Each structure stands twice: as structure tokens, then as C-alpha cells.
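sry for the spam today, last one i promise. C-alpha cells for design, 225 residues
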């Protein structure tokens, strides 16, 4: 994964957008909501234990081109926070374990999806999305909460991770038209990262990969078609 990959994906997205803009069946929208995320790919994060899922959020702008009433192509750009939660064992001044301090690792990504959508029905509609996505890491932060014995802390570890992530998205949902051109949607979408995002060696030849499940509430407006 390198700058050529970024350029290729950007050109693909822009060319798709340009093609969409010259045809009918264009819908633009905004969507967002909570997500639950975790890391996977090595024994420490896979087995759980001290590492737990994190509740985060995502938001974005969507663009859809309908080929027919059944099939369409969706793209856009979004922000998604992924990560994990954990507990840090604090040691007192005598070297004894004293308390567990909550902490979390936040991975802030810019997400570019490219998904096919199948739609059924009219009022309401039901749909299924599936396709690849590309993520660009904006920042990775490890944050610990304050306690009675020490203040909270944060550490920027972005340089320890690759800037690019890629994976597969799949989701299903429903929508209700509110006017002839406006529709409200609710979607449950899962993003599974398939690329090792760690730029440093992982224990026992493992990897660090992302995954998240998003609940997206959206509103879309039909420009043409």
C-alpha cells in the first residue's frame, strides 16, 4: 500500500462520481450514528481478556447512482472512529498493584467505500449493500482516564501504524420516503478490515486489523431520476 494506491482509489472514486454526474438516478445524502469496534488479527486482541470492544461513532456523505430500481452503486466519504478499550494496572510508589485505570485506543479514519446496492419495495424500501472500502488513518491516540492517584494522559502513536487500511463492507437496512425526492434510512453495516495496519512487528507473526459494526441513520435527496 503506497501513494499509488491512494491515487488509484481517488481516481476511481472521482471517475465514478463524474460518470454519475452525467446521468440520471443521482441521490446524495448524509448519514451517521454509533458504532461498536474492535481489533483482530493476533492472540491478544482475539482472545479478549483485558481488551474489550469500544463504543464510537461514524458520519459521512453518501452518493448513489441507480442503474435500475433494483441495482445501484454507492460511494462517498466518511469519518469513522474505531478502537478498543482496556484497563491499565497502576503501581503505587512501593511497587504494589493498586488500581485498574480505564484506557482506550482511538483510530480515526477517513473512509472511502464503493458498494453495490440491491433495493426492494417502495414504501418502505429494503436494501442490501456490499463492497470494498479504503481507509486513511488521520490519527491514533491512546488515552487513559484520571484516577485518585494520577492524572489522565494521552499519547499520539500515529507513526506506529500504516496510513492505509482496506477491507470489505456489508450492510442491510430499510428506508421510508417522506417526499417524492427525500427518504429517511436506517442501516446496520459491518466493516471488516483485511489489511495489517501495524507498521511494527506484532507478537508471534500476528497482525492488527480493524472491524466495526455501525448503526447509520441517514437522509437522502434525489437530485435526478
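last one done:
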Amino acid at each position: 500500500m503506497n501513494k499509488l494506491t491512494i491515487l488509484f482509489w481517488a481516481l476511481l472514486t472521482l471517475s465514478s462520481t463524474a460518470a454519475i454526474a452525467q446521468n440520471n438516478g443521482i441521490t446524495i445524502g448524509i448519514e451517521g450514528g454509533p458504532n461498536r469496534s474492535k481489533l483482530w488479527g493476533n492472540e491478544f486482541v482475539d482472545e479478549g481478556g483485558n481488551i474489550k470492544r469500544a463504543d464510537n461513532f461514524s458520519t459521512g456523505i453518501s452518493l448513489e447512482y441507480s442503474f435500475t430500481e433494483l441495482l445501484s452503486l454507492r460511494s462517498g466519504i466518511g469519518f469513522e472512529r474505531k478502537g478498543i478499550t482496556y484497563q491499565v494496572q497502576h503501581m503505587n510508589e512501593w511497587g504494589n498493584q493498586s488500581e485498574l485505570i480505564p484506557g482506550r485506543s482511538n483510530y480515526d479514519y477517513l473512509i472511502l467505500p464503493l458498494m453495490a446496492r440491491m433495493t426492494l419495495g417502495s414504501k418502505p424500501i429494503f436494501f442490501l449493500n456490499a463492497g470494498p472500502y479504503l481507509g486513511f488513518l488521520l490519527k491514533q491516540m491512546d488515552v487513559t482516564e484520571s484516577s485518585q492517584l494520577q492524572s489522565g494522559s494521552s499519547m499520539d502513536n500515529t507513526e506506529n501504524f500504516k496510513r492505509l487500511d482496506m477491507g470489505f463492507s456489508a450492510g442491510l437496512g430499510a428506508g421510508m420516503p417522506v417526499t417524492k425526492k427525500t427518504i429517511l434510512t436506517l442501516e446496520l453495516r459491518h466493516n471488516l478490515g483485511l489489511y495489517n495496519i501495524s507498521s511494527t512487528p506484532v507478537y508471534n507473526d500476528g497482525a492488527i486489523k480493524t472491524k466495526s459494526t455501525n448503526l447509520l441513520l441517514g437522509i437522502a435527496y434525489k437530485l435526478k431520476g
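Confidence is low (pLDDT under 50) at residues 17-23. ok im logging off now
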